[in-house]
């Protein structure tokens, strides 16, 4: 394939002229990819995408984990097409809103009510607002080890990209480490009667220690705190019922999105009736303004969500994701070890949600080495900032990826031996999303 993408390079310049950052999601920015090697996508099908230069790639992390069934999945598209001719947005609720809500609650039986919206940030911020209203408390306790919760001030103010956010807002968010019950308890005791909620992903790169989620549930109940599970990723990757279904721990509120629509824009806030109704019309409490969005219930997106849930019901999607991930992780680890970079190119996470780490000579995370590795993957026809699989990938796709990783590891070994990845980077290193300056 080579490393020359003239049409993508021109398209990136075009994007930057009219869109701040050149993309509508920072994680899709060209700064996340090697210099002049950030493909601009033309179209996708199944587990593959094509760029505007005509190159075909095996794709990972599809749509930032949103496309778990593969691009243009026929059952999802059929459901969407069946709704399009009926209209997509009305002055009153459409009957599909009830149907989709009922279907969701069958799928996530730990929740009593659900409200749909378009993106995860709106859902998580609505959960936080609801928790504050229900408890009368102002502090939000977020898990410090989970990368992203919302674009809203309560979270973004805690990151290096906190320009424009008052300190007073940031001061109302406190943090706790994942997996450490004692630290969570000490935080709750230190701010006794002040913390409205604990918000975390139930699992991420590491599995919850035995008893951890159950212990958090008990702590939250004891201290009168709302327990919120952010299931944007774990929902429809850990199990069709979410991580709460897999681990058997019921939060007070939970948020879903990403794979729920297989690329169509739909997210959800779900939870206990006594909390959710504070944002409704059947509670005596002071009302919460809870997720009132013009496009939150577009009919075709809700149809997509129902189709996704039907596919998960009829096919072993979760089993497929884990089988593909297991095969990929084992292959990558084997070739990395065989080439002598097993301690530097590492694969982490649940099989359905794999990420890779690129470590330098001292075993520390390295953006220059990540740049080298990504460059070799893209040149070999593999596109992905992670190894998060979709169910549309084939065994042949996995085998090709392992072959490309082997080639990348050979170059990686040369860079380690030279104690300098720069000759193989092709330009400036890729950058972390959260940073003070461009």
Q: What distance separates the N and C termini?
A: 30 Å
Class from secondary-structure proportions = alpha/beta
* Tally of alpha and pi helices: 15
Low-confidence stretches: none
The major beta sheet can be summarized as: 7 strands, mixed
Number of strands: 13
What proportion of the residues is helical, as a percent range?
Answer: 25-40%
What's the average pLDDT? Answer: 97
Sequence of strands across the biggest β-sheet = 4-10-9-8-7-5-6
Q: DSSP strand (E) fraction?
A: 5-15%
Large-scale geometry? globular
What does the radius of gyration come to? 22 Å
Write the H/E string, N to C.
HEEEHHHEHEHHEHEHEHEEHHHEEHEH
- The multimeric state of the shown protein is single chain
Task: Give descriptors for this structure.
seven-stranded mixed beta sheet; Glutamate-1-semialdehyde 2,1-aminomutase; transaminase activity; pyridoxal phosphate; 438 residues; pyridoxal phosphate binding; 13 strands; isomerase; single chain
């Amino acid at each position: 394939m080579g490393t020359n993408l003239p049409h993508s390079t021109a398209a990136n310049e075009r994007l930057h002229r009219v869109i701040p950052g050149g993309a509508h999601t920072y994680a899709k920015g060209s700064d996340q990819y090697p210099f002049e090697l950030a493909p601009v996508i033309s179209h996708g099908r199944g587990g593959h995408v094509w760029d505007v230069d005509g190159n075909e790639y095996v794709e990972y992390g599809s749509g930032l984990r949103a496309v778990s069934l593969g691009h243009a999945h026929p059952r999802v598209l059929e459901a969407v097409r069946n709704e399009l001719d009926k209209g997509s947005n009305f002055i009153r609720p459409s009957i599909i809103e009830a149907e989709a809500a009922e279907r969701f609650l069958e799928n996530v039986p730990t929740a009593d009510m659900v409200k749909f919206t378009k993106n995860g940030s709106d859902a998580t911020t609505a959960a936080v607002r609801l928790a504050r209203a229900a408890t009368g408390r102002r502090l939000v306790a977020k898990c410090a080890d989970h990368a992203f919760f919302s674009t809203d001030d309560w979270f973004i103010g805690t990151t290096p990209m906190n320009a424009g956010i008052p300190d007073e807002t940031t001061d109302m968010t406190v943090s706790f480490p994942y997996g450490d019950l004692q630290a969570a308890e000490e935080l709750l005791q230190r701010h006794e009667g002040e913390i409205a909620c604990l918000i975390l992903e139930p699992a991420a790169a590491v599995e919850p220690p035995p008893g951890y989620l159950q212990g958090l549930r008990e702590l939250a109940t004891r201290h009168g705190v709302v327990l919120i599970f952010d299931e944007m990723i774990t929902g429809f990757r850990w199990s069709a019922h979410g991580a709460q279904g897999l681990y058997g721990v019921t939060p007070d509120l939970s948020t879903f999105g990403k794979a729920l629509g297989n690329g169509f824009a739909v997210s959800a806030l779900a939870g206990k009736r006594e909390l959710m109704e504070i944002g409704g019309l059947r509670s005596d409490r002071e009302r919460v303004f809870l997720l009132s969005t013009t496009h939150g219930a577009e009919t075709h997106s809700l149809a997509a969500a129902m189709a996704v849930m039907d596919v998960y019901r009829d096919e072993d999607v979760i089993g497929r994701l884990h089988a593909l991930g297991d095969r990929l992780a084992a292959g990558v680890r084997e070739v990395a070890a065989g080439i002598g970079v097993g301690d530097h190119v590492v694969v982490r996470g649940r099989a359905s949600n794999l990420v890779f780490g690129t470590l330098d000579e001292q075993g520390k995370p390295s953006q220059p080495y990540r740049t080298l590795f990504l460059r070799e993957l893209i040149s070999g026809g593999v596109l992905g900032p992670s190894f998060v699989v979709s169910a549309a990938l084939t065994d042949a796709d996995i085998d090709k990826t392992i072959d490309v990783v082997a080639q990348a590891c050979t170059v990686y070994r040369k860079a380690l031996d030279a104690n300098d990845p720069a000759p193989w980077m092709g330009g400036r290193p890729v950058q972390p999303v959260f940073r003070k300056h461009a």
